[in-house]
Write a structure and sequence with these properties.
This protein is α/β, with parallel strands linked by helices. Helix content is about 40%, strand content about 20%.
């Protein structure tokens, strides 16, 4: 059963559709330079900490309603769902419902209709909306973003801060700047010929399918196409629906017209089937599993004759990321960087280190230090500042990760060195787990786990060539990798050999923590299409340039000179 509610203007707390407001920065985009949002400390007694605790208290004690938003109307259906707190899964954080096929089609119709007017707005006017949104996120709604991310995705203060505020704000500000820079180019004009390039949006609509693990990714995958002049159907993850809805509301308050981004929680296969069968699909902007991305790609391929244009596919699908250590490496950096990369946010970052390759000469020292740190790490509610990580996202993730730990426990070629415990009685808690693998082909070293599990392989320094080949070929992914070595010749050699094993490579640094504008992010192979979100060329993926040639001279003859000259 479908229930249509009153206008979105009356329903959303943040929405004030005052599109006449403007921000001085966007009026002068030619001299606008984005800067990275500073990370705040949230120290005890600070104003930020007090504000955050108030919003955490509010959302903790409220089951927020999250509607389907299409154009300027909100809807609910009888297919009701709840987002729970992963660290206390009996507590409901948000109530939402799935859009059915008819509602998804309505969203498509609304988006296609809105696209023409939105695309014809100047780049500056479109950019202005998202610069305003970034400004609102910096102060007025920073703590709402933080609280909904901490409670809904079980992120600690620092993990929520670097994601839901800093990275999201950076995506908006840098995308505006990069888009402006990318569209400066105009072709050569000679004599009577004037050539221009118009950077249009694409006909139809984009489908943005976003993950649970980064609120910023949800905001980026939905807003980037819109900045470029497109309209969007945004399908958020069920387990990040409240934080994503908070982002959506901020976009609307910033002046985003109705229908440009439509917020459509839905069952994955139903949503995928609806958008990939529409002749108006312009593209899919996706972050999630390889299997889901392949399904979407196959559906598009099967429907190719029906599309008005060939849809574009942008995908980021995870990785099996490595830290490769040379005997010359700084072991402090190795140990601390590996702990941070493998265990922060429970290893649920696409870039998290899940395989560590140690030389025999220093392996025992590194292992001993890792185990010692693991014993110090506390796991629990993200609301307690002493906890380094919290629960994994849901029961499916818990079961998957538990399966890998159980495999290690039963395998003769694996030894659990630290951790290995798990308990889902209250929250989906899994201890940071360190496993020594003797078989380089074990699935712990080849398959993505997406949890707080670090697998270690100790290599013979005389067999480095074979090791490099295994690192490069033993997994289907190619997202991130780190090389730890002080020997510059080794760094150059290994970096060259492994150049296709990662889309983001780090030298003497951990494999996580890419920053917008500093390390554009993305991988190839089955990690995705490597379109480098947070980089200068990303927005061009959402544009369909129009080349225009204007001739001011009279064309006096249809014949070529050699035809008339004797």
């Amino acid at each position: 059963m479908l229930r249509r509610c009153k206008s979105v203007v009356g329903r959303l707390r943040h929405v004030k559709l005052s599109s006449t407001r403007s921000l001085s920065t966007s009026q002068c985009l030619h001299d606008y330079t984005a800067v990275n949002e500073p990370i705040r400390d949230y120290l005890p007694g600070s104003t930020d900490r007090e504000r955050l605790e108030k919003r955490l208290s509010y959302f903790s004690n409220t089951c927020s309603d999250v509607p389907i938003v299409i154009g300027d109307d909100v809807y609910t259906t009888s297919d009701v769902r709840h987002q729970v707190m992963p660290f206390d899964h009996q507590k409901k954080l948000a109530k939402f419902s799935y859009a059915d096929k008819a509602l998804i089609q309505k969203a498509i119709d609304v988006a296609v209709k809105a696209q023409r007017d939105w695309e014809r707005q100047s780049y500056e006017k479109r950019a202005d909306v998202f610069l305003r949104a970034a400004k609102l996120m910096q102060e007025e709604y920073r703590m709402d973003l933080m609280a909904t991310t901490m409670l809904g995705q079980a992120k600690t203060i620092i993990q929520a801060e670097i994601d839901s505020t800093c990275e999201l704000i950076d995506f908006l500000n840098f995308n505006v700047m990069f888009g402006h820079e990318a569209t400066k180019y105009q072709p050569i004009s000679l004599g009577s010929i004037t050539n221009t390039l118009s950077y249009r949006g694409m006909e139809g609509f984009w489908a943005s399918v976003t993950p649970f693990n980064f609120t910023a990714i949800g905001g980026n995958l939905s807003s980037a196409p819109a900045i470029a002049g497109n309209t969007v159907l945004w399908k958020p993850s069920d387990t990040a629906v409240l934080s994503n809805y908070t982002v959506f509301k901020i976009f609307r308050e910033a002046g985003l017209p109705p229908g440009v981004i439509n917020f459509v929680p839905a069952d994955g296969p139903v949503f995928g089937g609806a958008v990939t069968s529409s002749p108006h699909l312009a593209g899919v902007n996706f972050t999630g599993s390889v299997e889901t991305f392949e399904t979407l790609w196959k559906s598009i391929s099967a429907n190719l004759p029906n599309f008005r244009s060939f849809p574009r596919m942008i995908g980021e699908c995870g990785g099996k990321n490595y830290h490769l250590v040379h005997p010359s490496a700084d072991l402090d950096s190795v140990v601390n960087g590996t702990v941070m990369s493998a265990f922060e946010f429970g290893g649920q970052k696409c870039s998290a280190c899940s395989r560590l390759f140690l030389p025999q000469s220093c392996a025992q020292e590194v292992i001993d230090r890792l185990v010692a740190i693991q014993e110090e790490i506390k796991v629990g509610s993200p609301l307690l500042v002493e906890n380094y990580l919290s629960a994994v996202i849901d029961d499916k993730a818990f079961a998957r990760i538990k399966g890998y730990i159980d495999h290690a426990r039963s395998s003769e070629s694996c030894e659990i060195l630290a951790g290995g415990g798990y308990d889902d009685s209250k929250g989906y808690f899994i201890q940071p787990t360190i496993i020594l693998c003797k078989d380089p082909n074990d699935k712990l070293l080849t398959e993505e786990i997406f949890g707080p599990v670090l697998s270690i392989y100790v290599y013979d320094e005389k067999e480095v060539a074979d090791l490099l080949t295994r690192i490069d070929s033993n997994t289907r992914y190619g997202l991130t990798g780190s090389i730890y070595a002080k020997d510059s010749e080794v760094v150059d050699s290994w970096k060259d050999f492994l150049r296709f094993s990662a889309g983001n490579m780090y030298i003497n640094d951990k494999s996580t923590g890419s920053v917008v504008g500093q390390q554009p992010f993305g991988g190839a192979r089955k990690s995705g299409t490597n379109d480098k979100a947070g980089g200068p060329h990303y927005l061009l993926k959402f544009m369909s340039p129009l080349a225009i040639k204007t001739n001011s001279a009279t064309l006096g003859d249809w014949r070529y000179k050699y035809m008339t000259e004797k």
